[in-house]
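Researcher: Next sequence.
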Amino acid sequence: MTPEEIAPPQESWEQHLKALGDRELAELAKDYNWLDEEARAQDQGKEYHRRREAVIAECRRRGMKRDA
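Model: Next structure:
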């Protein structure tokens, strides 16, 4: 995801994730630090955590491994 990209509205985040290709989702997962310890993300806000959990859920739904 490039810095100029804007995240979709909250209500369509899960649909947005489902529409992404595996490669895009893997990159987004890296951006959201889902491979790191939860403690590293504690400084982020509530919306960050909601989106992060949605990214993790979509990766799991697709059967993607954590090292993808």
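Model: The first helix runs from residue 13 to 19. The chain is about 55% helix and 0% strand.
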